[in-house]
């Protein structure tokens, strides 16, 4: 740890880790696209519980990878199809909720936005999360004085990146939300986001 703090050159691997996380984990996928879609359909404030669930769930995946639990889980042949089935089912349900969400300006709008539990479950069942986080986590070696220190630093950095990435995609979606007060445009954009979400899920599975 002292070496990492005192040697300026030791920070280069950390910057590489941040960049890899931004490119690989921040790229469009079921989780990030769903954040944008929910933000566009329900607005920034009402989407925060769902995004919080995604952040917590994705962080749980990160911790499982850091602890080596994913390798154990993947050795159970019956578990992967169950996680995949749950992910697909919830994505289809979420796409339906987004596609049928009324415009933000509609009087009497009382449709409940997806919540924390839904976001958490989607994150832990998202196949891309495991692949992307594992690739970033194992693809960078830090100049730390022990394996435990390196793991702790990676977990701290990637947890921060998980939070920033999801909030950035939420902000992008909320920008769309401000433009969707016209019912016709709102319906078209919601349907488009729902279709993109389904397509992204299919690509992640394939």
Question: How are the SSEs placed, and which strands pair?
Answer:
Elements: H1 2-6, H2 12-25, H3 30-42, H4 44-66, H5 69-74, H6 79-99, H7 116-124, H8 127-139, H9 147-178, H10 183-205
Helix pairs in contact: 2-8, 2-9, 3-4, 3-6, 3-9, 3-10, 4-7, 4-8, 4-9, 6-7, 6-10
Please tell me about this protein's structure.
By secondary structure, the chain is mostly helical. It has one domain (32-205). It is 77% helix and 0% strand. Helix 4 (44-66) runs antiparallel to helix 9 and helix 6 runs antiparallel to helix 10.
Question: Care to give the gist of this entry?
Answer:
This protein has 206 residues and is mainly α.
Could you give the order of the helices and strands? HHHHHHHHHH
Q: What Rg, in angstroms, do the CA atoms define?
A: 18 Å
Judging from the principal axes of the Cα atoms, what is the shape? Answer: globular
Number of domains: 1
Main sheet makeup: none
Number of helices: 10
Rounded mean pLDDT is: 78
Low-confidence stretches: none
What would the keywords be for this entry?
206 residues, mainly alpha
């Amino acid at each position: 740890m002292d070496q990492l703090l005192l040697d300026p050159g030791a920070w280069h691997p950390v910057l590489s880790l941040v960049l890899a996380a931004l490119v690989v984990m921040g790229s469009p996928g079921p989780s990030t696209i769903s954040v944008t879609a929910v933000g566009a359909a329900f607005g920034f404030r009402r989407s925060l519980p769902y995004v919080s669930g995604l952040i917590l769930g994705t962080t749980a995946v990160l911790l499982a990878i850091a602890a080596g639990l994913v390798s154990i889980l993947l050795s159970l042949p019956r578990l992967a199809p169950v996680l995949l089935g749950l992910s697909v089912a919830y994505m289809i349900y979420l796409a339906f909720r987004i596609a049928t969400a009324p415009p933000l300006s509609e009087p009497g709008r009382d449709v409940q936005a997806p919540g924390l539990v839904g976001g958490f479950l989607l994150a832990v069942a998202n196949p891309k999360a495991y692949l992307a986080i594992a690739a970033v986590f194992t693809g960078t070696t830090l100049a730390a004085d022990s394996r435990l220190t390196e793991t702790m630093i990676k977990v701290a950095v990637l947890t921060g990146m998980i939070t920033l990435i999801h909030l950035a995609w939420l902000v992008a979606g909320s920008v769309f939300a401000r433009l969707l007060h016209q019912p016709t445009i709102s319906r078209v954009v919601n349907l488009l986001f729902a279709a993109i979400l389904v397509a992204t899920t299919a690509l992640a599975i394939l």
